[in-house]
Specification:
five-stranded parallel sheet; 9 helices; 24 strands; globular; binds flavin-adenine dinucleotide; FlavoCytC_S_DH_flav-bd_sf; oxidoreductase activity; Flavocytochrome C; flavin adenine dinucleotide binding
Length: about 400
């Protein structure tokens, strides 16, 4: 029988693996992609939609161009039997595999923020950290705020998807407020001592949105927050604060199916070999993207896409006997501070015996001129077009 690779999760990591594995193996492997949603909405650039700088439709991608070699099934994987090498889908179907690739992204830790649970509170205080209707809900809530109202964002503890994401989000909502609600206030409630690109963000908040944004770190109770969705209140270190809209981004773990498959550890993430992203728990399973516990790479689409190339080569070597070369990885994370003011950070990584280790790192400088910042923003648009074409065809 032909060898069969099943990929669960058609996002930045999984769709890239499915598409490239089918293409690069020239029809020698059967590749099935299991993805819940018929349309994928990118988290990347979704903050620009919140800021009114991008349309919602521009974030949406279907699977029609993924290539003839990939069988796409729109269903949810509910169980993995690793003994029998089979996956069960919610619709009742079961799929046998020779190799299984898991790229299910993230799920939220229940009760991570006291007072908030996904059901039913995501409808009142959205997370908007899986893009789609949640992102639209957050935008409509922010737009409906009274003049001079307060928007709160509860930031997550490390490690989480897209380290600069919450802070870019605040910058983009501030951009929107500057236009439509200039006396509005933004509170960031943060359990962390510091955050990604902090100097770049803080400089921009002073320059563009002076007095609008307050960051409450753990020294001021940022780690002791409770929310009351029904009354739209926060309790910060015992003090009740009424707000007009609130974005709760809870602590995160690997997408649920990774734990159901038994390939996560106590951290909640799936440990993998640095040179191949092969699960340390099961040789027939690969885990990439946000779900993987791999070392120094941030949880980003850019990282997931880079890891996908390594997974494709590792599976081809494994099943087809092609030659394996050294694994190296790259990542760039872009953030928009204000219209035409873009910054980036990133690096190169390589597999060491212990982990995927950072070997080179770069970050935009604090005092770059406007032309360079505009060029960085334009570069990020090019990156988006390129990576979405690489993922979805
Ligand atoms: P995902 O892309 O989330 O894909 C997982 C897929 O698996 C989903 O489509 C889901 O429906 C599916 N799935 C899950 N479980 C199942 C199941 N059981 N059965 C079937 N299907 C399932 N990254 C960048 O590189 N650059 C950025 O500028 C950037 N900006 C961001 C901004 C925000 C606000 C956020 C929230 C994230 C941002 N990211 C950015 C991060 C990026 O979105 C993620 O790191 C990336 O999507 C991770 O890819 P993944 O393949 O691991 O997971």
């Amino acid at each position: 029988a032909r060898l069969h690779v099943v990929v669960i999760g058609g996002g930045a990591g999984g769709a890239t693996v499915a598409r490239h594995l089918a293409r690069d193996s020239g029809g020698a492997l059967d590749v099935t992609l299991v993805e819940t949603n018929p349309v994928y909405t990118t988290c990347f650039m979704s903050n620009l939609y919140l800021g009114g700088l991008r349309s919602y439709e521009s974030l949406e991608h279907g699977y029609g161009a993924i290539g003839a070699g990939v069988t796409v099934i729109h269903d949810t994987a509910t169980a993995v039997d690793r003994e029998r090498k089979s996956v069960t889908l919610a619709g009742g179907q079961s799929l046998a595999y020779d190799r299984l690739v898991l790229a299910p992204g993230i799920d939220f830790v229940e009760d991570a923020v006291p007072g908030w649970s996904l059901e039913p509170h995501a409808g009142i205080m959205p997370h908007a950290y899986k893009a789609g209707p949640q992102t639209q809900l957050l935008k409509s809530m922010v737009e409906a705020m009274p003049q001079g109202g307060t928007f709160a964002l509860v930031a997550p503890p490390d490690p989480y998807r897209c380290p600069p994401g919450p802070y870019e989000r605040v910058s983009m909502i501030a951009t929107l407020f500057k236009r439509t609600n200039p006396t509005a206030k933004i509170l960031i409630i943060d359990p962390k001592e510091g955050f990604s690109k902090q100097t770049l963000f803080e400089n921009a908040w002073l320059k563009y949105y002076d007095g609008m944004i307050d960051w409450i770190g753990p020294d001021f109770g940022g780690d002791l927050v409770e929310v009351r969705p029904e009354t739209m209140e926060l309790v910060i270190d015992g003090e009740v604060q009424k707000v007009d809209a609130c974005n709760v981004i809870p602590a995160q773990v690997a997408g649920r199916i990774a734990a159901a498959a038994g390939v996560t550890d106590d951290s909640g993430w799936a440990p993998v070999a640095p040179e191949s992203l092969r699960s340390k728990i099961d040789e027939a399973v690969f885990v990439l993207g946000d779900s993987a516990l791999q070392g120094d790479m941030p949880k980003s689409a850019s990282a997931a896409n880079s890891q996908a190339a390594v997974v494709v080569r590792a599976i081809r070597a494994d099943l087809l006997g092609t030659k394996l070369r050294n694994a190296d990885y790259a990542n760039t994370c872009w953030s928009l501070l204000a219209p035409d003011d873009g910054v980036k950070l990133g690096g190169a990584y390589e597999a060491t015996p212990e982990k995927i280790a950072s070997v080179h790192h770069f970050i935009s400088e604090a005092h770059e001129d406007a032309a360079l910042r505009k060029a960085t923003y334009e570069e990020s648009i090019g990156w988006y077009d390129g990576i979405t074409a690489d993922i979805f065809g």
